[in-house]
Amino acid sequence: MLKLKVKTSTKYQITIGSGLEGFNQSVDKYIKGDKVAIIMDTNVSKLYKNLLEEKLSAKKVFTYIVPAGENSKSKEQYFNLLEKLCSDGFTRHDTIIAFGGGVVGDLSGFVASTYMRGIALIQVPTTILSAVDSSVGGKTAINLENGKNLVGAFYQPRAVYVNTEFLKTLPDKEIKSGFGEIIKYALLSKKVTLDLVKNGISEKLIYECLKIKRDIVSKDEKESSLRALLNLGHTVGHAIESLSKYQISHGECVVKGLIYTLKISQKVFNLTQSQIDQINKIINCYNHDTSCEYSAEQIMNKVCFDKKGDGKAVKFVLLKDVGNPKIVSLTHQQIKECIE
Ligand SMILES: NC(=O)c1ccc[n+]([C@@H]2O[C@H](COP(=O)([O-])OP(=O)(O)OC[C@H]3O[C@@H](n4cnc5c(N)ncnc54)[C@H](O)[C@@H]3O)[C@@H](O)[C@H]2O)c1
Ligand SMILES: [Zn+2]
User: Fold this and answer.
1) Any atom of ligand 1 within 6 Å of the Cβ of 333
2) Which one of 12, 196, 235, 272 has the lowest number of neighbouring Cβ atoms within 10 Å?
3) Could you give all domains of the chain from N- to C-terminal order, each with its CATH number?
4) Averaged in consecutive runs of 10 residues, what is the pLDDT profile of the chain (340 residues)?
């Protein structure tokens, strides 16, 4: 079992384990109050509802199930959950466990942040993406008709408990997508080595990825500067995700975005051939499909006219080398020259 301490506005511990023997002790000690609401989606509940209710039998356990998929990050599901907590008599002194992927984590986190102005939240991520990324750092959100994550709060969990056992039931598509995010970490820091990534999911791999996230969010909890480094590959990645109407998985889009990141970094920093080869080797280590069916113009349109931009320049995370990312502001003309 590996442990990491996170120091943000509140302090909390991440526990990374494998095998479910110690599960109840590891999670029970963070539960506040008599009542626990476990929030999970329909897919996860089929696999783990009974096991969880049995393991946490010491408390009054309520299980709330939402439909699997991004659509559950909605105002309807958000209010449903609040109403359920209220009718089941939850007070500010009880606990919510978000048991699932990033969708359940974001939705439950937002519920926790607002129910009676804040109720204890334990994140138990069950996808690779949520294990190495979304369960840590305190970003919670739901979507509006007009876009993703437009309503939310920074709300840190009381604890994060990752167990590699839960990741064993993931479909291949989710594993591949999760590794897209892991490749991002392997480019951000040399600690996530190619050997570690190639060995597949392990406590150590999750630990090294989360350590990077921990270090960054501890220095910049609310994304005023440094936290943007975690967007490596995401500027173009999000553009491709949106162009594909979310048909290509997030991690796969991040990998395609990393190819563009390399193209731009190459021009901006004059990378040497050996640096380019090393970066390429990492991007391609999981055999993701790195082709892109969208034109430079389509990508430019998405990247440059994103609602968050100022209309003139775009902030990109580029690579000076493996383990040496830099945030650079590029004009539209510069981006055009690099990606065409
Ligand atoms: N808060 C943050 O910092 C942050 C960061 C990145 C992404 N996100 C958000 O995360 C969401 C995506 O998360 P995701 O990729 O985990 O998607 P997800 O939660 O939809 O999970 C993906 C699929 O895997 C299934 N699943 C989950 N755990 C399983 C298991 N153990 N075995 C079998 N199937 C399982 C789910 O039912 C779902 O069908 C997006 O909404 C994104 O905006 C948030
Ligand atoms: Zn991502």
Assistant:
1) no
2) 272
3) 2-170 (3.40.50.1970), 174-339 (1.20.1090.10)
4) 96 94 87 95 97 80 97 98 98 97 98 98 98 98 93 97 97 97 98 97 98 96 92 96 95 98 96 97 97 94 78 92 96 89
Query: How close is the Cα of 234 to the center of ligand 2, in Å?
Result: 7
Cα(70) to centroid(ligand 1), Å: 8
SS (H, E, C) the chain: CEEEEEECCCEEEEEEECCCCCHHHHHHCCCCCCEEEEEEEHHHHHHHHHHHHHHCCCCEEEEEEECCCHHHCCHHHHHHHHHHHHHCCCCCCCEEEEEECHHHHHHHHHHHHHHHHCCEEEEEECCHHHHHHHCCCCEEEEEECCEEEEEEEECCCCEEEEEHHHHCCCCHHHHHHHHHHHHHHHHHCCCCCHHHHHCCCCHHHHHHHHHHHHHHHHHCCCCCCHHHHHHCCHHHHHHHHHHCCCCCCHHHHHHHHHHHHHHHHHHHHCCCHHHHHHHHHHHCCCCCCCCCCCCHHHHHHHHHCCCCCCCCEEEEEEEEECCEEEEEEEEHHHHHHHHC
Pocket flag, ligand 1, residue 71 (CB < 6 Å):
no
Whether residue 129 has its Cβ less than 6 Å from ligand 1: yes
pLDDT value at residue 272: 97
The pLDDT of residue 304 is 87
Residues forming the active site? 117, 139, 181, 213, 223, 227, 231, 234, 238, 250
Residue 58's pLDDT is 63
pTM: 0.96
Q: What is the pLDDT of residue 57?
A: 63
Query: What's the gap in Å between 268 CA and the centre of ligand 2?
Result: 24
pLDDT at 232: 97
